[in-house]
Specification:
The protein is elongated. α8 packs across α12. The chain folds into 2 domains: 244 residues, Rossmann fold; 154 residues, Rossmann fold (3-Layer(aba) Sandwich). By secondary structure, the protein is of the alpha/beta class.
Length: 424
């Protein structure tokens, strides 16, 4: 069985959980005997090729003969007049804007070759459409059995590949526009998500929470929507002891500082904890469009000496942050899944997660609160910091639990969904 897979990012060059999940799943599928052709907008050459063949969309000459065909009849609605930058931190905007000035394509007798940034800059929607153009050429040249498109950025590419090849399409919903924006959805993104869902032969959602959103908010037939929970890959991960230069306990929030992740609830809970004990400090690691607002709120609450902003972390810095932490908090307003609590648990850190997260469906040894219940969050943080028996039990059981999760198990479920479509 051979899958043509479209993704927007892949380790080690990632911006969040999407790339991590794509990598874990492809590794599991490769072990399950599925051959993978993984297409990404911009490959750097240091990606793990053991998962299959990685195709760099920036190296593909598109066939101009395809452009005038019926396959493009659903592209016209994608024209937008303003920048669209989900996942983008404020401090990254200017550098990406300058990069986009030099973003070029060139033509030859072979066709047109597009140079993608593979990021989330102001030319994002332009790249989404061009990525679909490249997908048309790839689908006409490669042999495969099924198409797998990760998240809304690649749905159009998956649709075009399906129409070119006649092969079935599976889309993987890692998040929806309702997760990212609440009820203030970007209509263009919503329309593209719904188009992908309508065209797909099967839809894989990363949790039952996300599955219900797909069914109710996008009016999709529930018979073709499957909940497939994420896992976590700990191969090559070492939990190293670190030396801290401070005696205070550390409570950590690590993620995009955006509406979806609930950073304001973390700050309000921190304020309540500090009224009960001073032997603690709080760390907010990440970047996003709410960063300035959160800094101002911390200042207004007079917590500057007890609250630290690290900016965006990646790679070893993320693992080091987990090692420094005594408690990890994920107070997300709407979290399709949430891999970071699993990573924290693997590092021996007790976690507090919102009930509005997909990962709460599979975790037993984590404290679960409603994202809006700041008092419950503050009480939970205080308990983990001050009641040794509670902390040790949750830490020990959580470590054992998280080590039972495997992408290999998730991959078997995905392969079964592939087979149900191909051999129906």
């Amino acid at each position: 069985m051979k899958a043509l897979m479209f993704g927007w990012e892949f380790p080690p060059h990632i911006s969040g959980g999407l790339g991590t999940a794509s990598y874990g799943l492809t590794r599991g599928l490769a072990k399950a005997g599925v051959e993978i052709l993984f297409v990404m907008p911009k490959a750097y050459g240091d990606e793990d090729s053991s998962i299959g063949r990685i195709i760099n969309a920036s190296d593909v000459f598109t066939k101009t003969s395809i452009f005038g065909s019926e396959y493009w009849k659903n592209v016209d609605f994608l024209t937008i007049s303003s920048g669209l930058m989900p996942y983008l931190g404020v401090e990254e905007y200017e550098s990406l804007r300058q990069e986009s000035i030099h973003h070029k394509s060139f033509a030859s007798h072979l066709g047109t070759k597009y140079q993608f940034t593979g990021k989330y800059g102001e030319n994002l929607m332009e790249e989404v459409v061009r990525y679909a153009m490249v997908a048309a050429t790839i689908a006409s040249e490669q042999q495969f059995d099924i198409i797998h498109a990760h998240d809304w950025l690649t749905y159009l590419a998956g649709i075009v590949a399906k129409r070119i090849s006649g092969k079935p399409l599976v889309i993987h919903v890692h998040a929806t526009e309702f997760d990212r924006s609440g009820e203030s959805v970007n209509q263009t993104v919503y329309d593209l998500e719904k188009l992908g869902m309508n065209e797909a032969d099967a839809i894989m959602a990363v949790s039952n929470l996300t599955r219900n959103i797909v069914i109710t908010k996008y009016n999709i037939d529930e018979s073709k929507v499957f909940a497939v929970h994420n896992a976590v890959d700990f191969s090559g991960h070492e939990t190293n002891a670190v030396t801290r230069k401070m005696n205070e306990s550390i409570v950590t929030f690590l993620g995009r500082i955006t509406f979806q992740k609930g950073p304001e609830y973390f700050i309000e809970a921190a304020s309540k904890v500090l009224k009960r004990t001073q032997n603690v400090c709080f760390v907010m690691a990440g970047s996003g469009d709410m960063m300035n607002r959160m800094v101002k709120r911390v200042a207004k609450l007079n917590m500057g000496a007890k609250f630290h902003f690290t900016g965006f972390l990646k790679g070893d810095d993320v693992n080091r942050m987990y090692s420094y932490s005594d408690v990890y908090v994920m107070p997300s307003v709407s979290e399709p899944f949430g891999i970071s609590p699993l990573e924290a648990m693997r590092s021996g850190v007790p976690v507090i997660i919102s009930k509005q997260s997909g990962v709460s469906e599979v975790l037993k040894h984590a404290i679960k609160i409603n994202f809006w219940d700041v008092d419950a969050l503050a009480d939970s943080i205080y308990a983990l910091l001050n009641y040794k028996g509670v902390r040790q039990m949750i830490t020990r059981c959580g470590y054992e639990e998280v080590n039972s999760f495997s992408w290999n198990d998730t991959a078997k479920i995905v392969k079964d969904i592939y087979s149900s479509i191909l051999y129906a």
